[in-house]
Write a structure and sequence with these properties.
Number of domains: 3
CATH class of the largest domain: Alpha Beta
Shape: elongated
Radius of gyration: 24 Å
Number of strands: 5
Distance between the termini: 56 Å
Structural class: alpha/beta
Length: about 325
């Protein structure tokens, strides 16, 4: 099995290879056809193809020599005003040699740039439009100042649907001779929720054990508890057996090495799947939110999770009375 990172290995090379983002691809292909690109903002969750789309656009525009005409910066690392004044401006002011008269600057994690850096970037974008076009990739476009947003064409990326997610992972598993089981595929989607980069890296980590990839392996290597185990713990608590539910909680923490905040999120998900009246789901959601806040503030995990289980036991008693 190759030790090369699969996410990079299977990254689409051209716009036609991209998965799911059809409307975005059609718009970008129109830019390639006209041989002109405006300043752009690619916004959306991580792992949905923002940086890949920018690189595919550059490759289609400049062909295989595209690396000579682009510069990539991760703005979360190099996010200060000095970088904009020096690195960005130096690159932007020099005209490209070739048929396309402009170069492309790709700024990843642009929403992490400081306000001063964004103001300096705004001015640079204005002055050097003829020689450089900017593509800003951001998880949250609202963190980019309005003057920059108004100068850019917006593109909204979304998580992959389940069908596309499964199809792509099966393709990779087949290419790499990995036996991917149905429950393993379900577990990858449960853990990654449409983030394809995370899904591919999860699959590679699971495949490195040289065993068939099933749900148990996926949950163990990602540090997530199995939904079935969380559901079992909730059922035990709501049947009134607090000590057994607490033992189940400790077993999960030891088995999966999962953090308390992660268990809270999984409990929150399983509560809405549980077969209990909606008013109680609302009350439990409020309790889970309170416990989560306490954990974020630094409260003891075991004490707070035990308190949550105690509340679930009380709910079970109340539901039993009403029944």
């Amino acid at each position: 099995m190759s030790f090369e990172m699969w996410a990079e290995k299977y990254r689409p090379k051209k716009l036609d290879d991209m998965v799911n983002q059809k409307e975005i691809v059609e718009r970008l292909k129109s830019f390639v056809k006209s041989r002109n690109v405006p300043h752009c903002i690619f916004a959306g969750p991580p792992g949905t193809g923002k940086t890949t789309a920018a690189l595919c656009l550059a490759r289609d525009l400049y062909s295989e020599a595209y690396r000579e005409h682009i510069m990539e910066l991760n703005a979360s690392d190099e996010r200060g005003i000095d970088v904009v004044r020096e690195t960005v401006k130096t690159f932007a002011r020099v005209r490209s040699i070739g048929e396309i008269p402009f170069k492309i600057m790709i700024l990843d994690e642009a929403d992490n740039m400081t306000s001063d850096a964004q103001q300096a970037l705004r001015r640079t974008m204005e002055r050097f439009t003829e020689t450089c076009r900017f593509i800003l990739c951001a998880n949250y476009s609202g963190k980019i100042i309005e003057p920059i947003q108004s100068r850019c064409a917006p593109f909204r990326f979304s998580f992959l649907p389940r069908e596309e997610h499964d199809k792509y992972l099966k393709h990779i598993a087949e290419k790499e001779n990995v036996r991917l089981l149905k429950d393993g595929l379900d577990a990858v989607f449960e853990v990654c929720s449409g983030d394809l980069r995370k899904a591919i890296n999860t699959l590679q980590a699971a495949a490195s054990l040289n065993k068939p990839v099933d749900a148990k392996i996926v949950y163990s290597i990602t540090g997530k508890a199995s939904p079935a185990d969380v559901q079992k713990m909730l059922e035990i608590a709501m049947k009134g057996n607090f000590i057994e539910a607490r033992k189940q909680l400790r077993d999960m923490i030891q088995k999966y090495g999962v953090a308390g905040s992660d268990i809270i999120r999984q409990i929150h998900t399983e509560i809405f799947r549980a077969d209990i009246p909606e008013p109680w789901k609302i009350k439990l959601a409020d309790v889970v939110g309170e416990i989560d806040y306490r954990l974020v503030e630094g409260a003891d995990e075991e004490v707070q999770l035990s308190a949550l289980l105690a509340r679930l036991v009380e709910v079970g008693f109340e539901l039993g009375k009403n029944a």
